[in-house]
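#onboarding

Welcome to the new folks! Below is a worked example of what a typical request in this channel looks like: someone posts a single protein sequence, and someone else replies with the predicted structure as tokens. Don't worry about understanding the tokens yet, we'll cover that in week two.

Example request:
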Amino acid sequence: MPDTGPHTAEKEHGTGRVPEPERTPGAGSPAGQRDAQYRYHRELFPALHDWERTERSVVEFSGEEGPAGLLGIDQMGHFGPQGCDLVAGAVIARGGGPLDLCELGSGFGGALRHVVDRITAGGLAVRRAHGVDLVPEHCAVSRSINRAQGRTGITDICASATAVPLADASLDVVLVTGSMPHFPAPGEVLREAGRLLRSGGLLVLTEEVSLTPGGEEPSEGFRATHPRGVFYTTPLDVRLRELERAGFADVVRTDLAQWAVALLTDRLKAVRIFRGSVAGIYGAGPTDLIRDTLEAARTEFLAARLSPALITARRA
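Example response:
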């Protein structure tokens, strides 16, 4: 990846009135969201639902077993393992420990596993990690991978990110690595994060394709691979107000636009160069859909219709 780092972090404060986040009628119910997210991710990543076969294909391709051989294949956000490294770096910079943490919208669990490994390598102990996801099939895949890797310190919880079955003030860190656009009510998710965190606890978000500079919609080209009812966007000022209402202070937004364009350019090159090998793991159709999805996001970043960012905040 080119040596293009994130822009300098800056304090952000929402001003003025902007439209509320988009909503698709009926799509935000738990059952509707569970089905919509399952169908979308099943079409995009069918290989992960046959994890044992996929793992064998990964080993054949990479020559390595276990987490080192995955090459980010179970970290399915637009930012992949590089985005997870940003999250882990924010947690390490906070310090403390041993840490109790969770990821909301953890999907297949790859991002959480990666972040836990990086935090541990950075010298912080993780006492307990929880992955929270609404889709039972995603949780089942994550549990299978965790068992195969002998990860006894990670618990998968199948639940809504707005109603997590953990006690108030029970966590030191809450993470959302790229899943913000999959939440139809992100303000409620942030309030739940505030409930879960102890005073002074850390919230870390990678906002991949979830923030707009104002109230405008992304392009219809973007919607071809990021359908309404599966992906929701929120104006930046609205997100900042949501954080404030959820009880967060010291909100810092790091603009990732330049970094994200460079990253997605490199990811697209890798998909094209290794298309045969990637198609052998994912299938030809899903591989082309992954390519088109990354290209659509890159186009929105270049046009400044989406504002990729790393956001950190402290529970007041």
